[in-house]
């Protein structure tokens, strides 16, 4: 049945590379093209953030190569990973580069694709659901809500040196973006929180940490911007995590659909005015 569903989609060619987003973790969030790539690839080069359940879809006999990069831990160098993709493709393999989330959203997919261009290796980009959107949805937190915000900023919490990016205009983001979604920010949350408060954000603004989003190990910590550093430290939560700042966090009490499936009672919309009616 699944072969029939996938039969109309492009096939992987020998000597080519597919740069594929695996989504935030739940294998149900894989795209059809991602599944087809998993079922056809000779070699799958995967990140640390790719859930093991997704890798179970690999065809029998496919070679799995780990190329994870985790902050503060021994990791392969990005250039070496990119050149490994070239080497595997030039050997005639159908290569699947499987990355958590979306390959072009803080996933270094652009760097890898440019290396493939440099060596004339054909490739295909297969977008995935970014954890900054899909992971928050699994926590019951929408990144936009018309009663709260019409803009959202996505940013990384550290640069290539592992430090808080000095190129980010924290003052502009703090003043201009009602919702801020941060990748890889837990390590520097104290500095980031201080930067945003200095830019005028309230210490009482809601914050949520969503760890291992969309997997069976998902954890959600709700706190405030001022308390976020201490709360993250004492809670024992660990990366990978998405951090979201903004009033949309308050909607989790109404939209935690996973919690509702487990018996949590959801509350009415906290932003709905008493007696108001829905309009188109």
Automatic annotation (TrEMBL):
Q: Which CDD domains match?
A: SUMT
| Biological process terms in GO annotation | cobalamin biosynthetic process; methylation; siroheme biosynthetic process
Residue stretches making up the Tetrapyrrole methylase domain: 17-228
Which pathway? Porphyrin-containing compound metabolism; siroheme biosynthesis; precorrin-2 from uroporphyrinogen III: step 1/1; Cofactor biosynthesis; adenosylcobalamin biosynthesis; precorrin-2 from uroporphyrinogen III: step 1/1
EC no. given is: 2.1.1.107
Provide the GO MF annotations for this entry: uroporphyrin-III C-methyltransferase activity
Group of enzyme by EC: transferase
Look up the domain of life of the source: Bacteria
Q: Which UniProt keywords apply?
A: Cobalamin biosynthesis, Methyltransferase, Porphyrin biosynthesis, S-adenosyl-L-methionine, Transferase
Which InterPro entries does its entry note?
A: 4pyrrol_Mease (IPR000878), 4pyrrol_Methylase_sf (IPR035996), 4pyrrole_Mease_sub1 (IPR014777), 4pyrrole_Mease_sub2 (IPR014776), CobA/CysG_C (IPR006366), Siro_Cobalamin_biosynth (IPR050161), Uropor_MeTrfase_CS (IPR003043)
Q: Say if the entry is tagged with keyword Metal-binding.
A: no
* Similarity annotation: Belongs to the precorrin methyltransferase family.
What's the protein called, per UniProt?
A: uroporphyrinogen-III C-methyltransferase
Q: Which organism is it from?
A: Rhizobium metallidurans
């Amino acid at each position: 049945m699944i072969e029939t569903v996938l039969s109309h989609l492009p096939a992987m060619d020998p000597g080519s590379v597919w740069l594929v987003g695996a989504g935030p973790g739940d294998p149900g969030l894989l795209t059809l093209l991602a599944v087809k790539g998993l079922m056809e690839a000779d070699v799958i080069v995967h990140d640390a953030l790719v859930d093991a359940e997704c890798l179970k879809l690999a065809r029998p006999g496919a070679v799995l190569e780990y190329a994870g990069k985790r902050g503060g831990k021994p990791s392969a160098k990005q250039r070496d990973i990119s050149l490994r993709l070239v080497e595997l493709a030039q050997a005639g393999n159908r290569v699947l580069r499987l990355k958590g989330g979306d390959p072009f959203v803080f996933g270094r997919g652009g760097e890898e694709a440019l290396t493939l261009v440099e060596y004339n290796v054909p490739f295909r980009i297969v977008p995935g659901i970014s954890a900054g959107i899909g992971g928050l949805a699994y926590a019951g937190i929408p990144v936009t809500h018309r009663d709260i915000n019409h803009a959202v900023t996505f940013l990384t919490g550290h640069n290539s040196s592992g430090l808080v990016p000095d190129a980010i205009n924290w003052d502009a983001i703090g003043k201009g973006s009602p919702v801020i979604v941060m990748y890889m920010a837990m390590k520097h949350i104290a500095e980031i929180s201080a930067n945003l408060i200095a830019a005028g954000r309230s210490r009482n603004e809601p914050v949520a940490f969503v760890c291992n989003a969309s997997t069976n190990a998902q954890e959600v910590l709700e706190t405030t911007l001022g308390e976020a550093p201490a709360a993250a430290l004492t809670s024992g939560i660990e990366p990978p995590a998405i951090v979201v700042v903004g009033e949309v966090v308050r909607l989790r009490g109404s939209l935690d659909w996973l919690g509702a499936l487990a018996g949590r009672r959801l509350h009415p919309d906290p932003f709905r005015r008493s007696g108001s009616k829905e309009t188109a």
